[in-house]
Amino acid sequence: MRNAFVRRTVLSASAVSLALLVTACGGSSDTADGKSDSEPGATTPVIAAAKGKTDAELGPLLVAQADLPDHVLKPATAEEVKAGAEVASDKPACLPLVKAQSMAPVGTAAGTARIKGVAKPKGASPDASEAEKAKAGLEALGSTVTAVALSSYDGKGAEEAFAALKSAGTDCAGGFGVQMGGEPGKISKVTPAAPVTAGDEALAYSIELDDAGDKATTELVVVRKGNSLVTFSAISLAGTAEQPKAVVAAQLKKLG
Q: Hey, what CATH class is 4-23+51-255 in?
């Protein structure tokens, strides 16, 4: 029987699968006094620090159903947002990884928008046997569920959040304790996953949950573009998720 933490995590993914599938800037180079920046005596322009976007402003930039017609997408629930805000780790350096897996912003974000998606199953043919239809249904529940969190930051906040996640991948490779959804658990290891080339910088990890021999693996992809940071956390009822390449590509295309 699965350990409570792993069981809760994986069954949560299957519940999401079921719920989702049921509902099926630039400016002039001249200064104010007319002098070019290259002219002697020209005033050096002041570059304003990046200003983060609010939750409401991020909403239209989040991947939507029209962007992924072969997936079913649904916004995160209030309960999921609350649970993400309450995650914890016995190693502070590893907390960014736990937050990224929980649709919670890493560091102090100006705003965050969240959504979940699962690929539409192929399904059984109309003339399939009951056994074949049942098998197709089980395979659908085992589809990879991807949780997406798009956060925006003031100044260099996104770069700092990315750096924290990058450091955590090294510092926490040997595992750490976590608490998610009120359940204590353990991450046994964090390993580099298939490289992702996107945005200004990106990273990818495979994160293994292992309590008393019960295992499940999540695939985490993090992409920074300007002062925005996107985390993609994928998990499956089958225990081993696939890297959510289609979701990553659609979200990055939406950001422009």
A: alpha beta
